[in-house]
Amino acid sequence: MKVAKNSIFISIIFPCLLCAKFSFSQLIVNAGKDTTYCVGLWPGLMILGADLQIKNGVEPYTIRWECELKLTPTLVFTASDFLNDTTLLSPLITNNISWPQWLKFIVHITDSKNNYSKDSINIRFSTFGYQTKHIVAGLERGDSIRLKGIFIGGGIEPLKYYWQPGTGLSNFENLTTWCKPDSSIQYFQIAVDSCGCVSEPNLAYDIRVVPTGVDQLSLKQDNTLNIQQKGTKIFFDNPFKKQARIILCSVDGKTQSHFEAVDDYFDIAHLLKTKGIYIVKISVGKITDSKKVLNY
Q1: What is the C-alpha to C-alpha distance for residues 195 and 157, in angstroms, rounded to an integer?
Q2: pLDDT at 215 over 60
Q3: Under a CB-based contact definition with an 8 Å cutoff, are residues 160 and 191 in contact?
Q4: Mind listing the pLDDT tens digit for each residue in 79-103?
Q5: CA dihedral in degrees (228, 230, 236, 242; nearest 10)?
Q6: Helices H, strands E: what count in the chain?
Q7: pLDDT digits (tens, 9 = 90+) for 152-189
Q8: How far apart are CA 144 and CA 171, in angstroms?
Q9: Rounded mean pLDDT of 258-285?
Q10: Please, are residues 77 and 54 in contact by the beta-carbon 8 Å criterion?
């Protein structure tokens, strides 16, 4: 009976020990939390699997990340299109796309004992799209003007819009607001999406406050406006702040931007997204002048 009892004891304990040993040695991988990456005003390093954890593994590990985004039968994105190295534990995301939907990445890990495990993580990118617009307006001190928001799209909806700075505005959180500044000021518009990602500032209004009762004298009588470029700023003769009509064209004559201004300069960096040579055409009163300019 004593032997029988020991046999029963061994038959019960031994499988339990095997089970405990198997549970302890099982390789477990946790790829981390699903992540939204901001590609806007303050883009930081985008690291995939920054919080990835491996339990019960024996180094070194063999690692492989995979992903597939199939837009068409011939247009397919894989992990190597996004990552600097698909064999790193926490690779850098070096390429992002305007794709607000979730992308699924799977990490496959094998340890030195040939134990295998995998896990997945979903990521997405918050990117913004812009409609450039630059309005220069003259305003007598004490008067007000209505600002109308310009298009900022993309992000992870819904989006909220803000004016910066909030000085002199009836409501800096509305797309349309009244402006009554005490001095000349530039207003920028930004968007913040549902994930807290912030867009780049989009310059909308350059308000020039002038003293009341400025005598609108006739413009000089020659046929030039003395257009000069200094850096990205374009200066021209408009000493009495008359309404100026400004057109920026490519060399082949296609209009890239046009607006009206009550000023004697503007900044092409806020109007043109592409570097190169352009033609600026400015009309003030009866005088029209043009000149070659360079967008750096």
Answers
A1: 9
A2: no
A3: yes
A4: 999 999 999 999 999 987 777 789 9
A5: 170
A6: 2, 22
A7: 888 999 999 999 999 999 999 988 999 999 888 999 99
A8: 13
A9: 89
A10: no
* Paired tokens of 246: 């400004």
Instruction: Report the 10 Å Cβ neighbour count for 290.
Output: 14
Contact 134, 206 (CB under 8 A): yes
Q: Which single residue is written with the structure tokens 């997945």?
A: 120
Structure tokens at 283: 């009309």
Nearest CA to 67 out of 111, 27, 123 is that of 123
Instruction: Please tell me what DSSP assigns to residue 51.
Output: T
Q: Which two tokens stand for residue 282?
A: 């400015």
CB 108 within 8 A of CB 116: yes
Structure-token match 């063999």, residue found = 62
Are residues 27 and 115 in contact, defined by beta-carbon separation less than 8 angstroms?
yes
HSE value, Cβ hemisphere, 13 Å, CA-based, for 84: 11
CA 201 from centroid of its chain's CA atoms: 10
C-alpha to C-alpha distances, 249 to 43, 70, 146, 228, 281, nearest whole angstrom: 32, 39, 28, 17, 8
Closest residue by Cα to residue 33 from 15, 17, 47: 47
Cα 253 to Cα 14, 272, 277, 278, 296, distances in angstroms: 87, 15, 12, 9, 19
Burial of 77 (0-12, 13-18, 19+ CB in 10 A): middle
CA dihedral (156, 160, 161, 167) positive or negative: negative
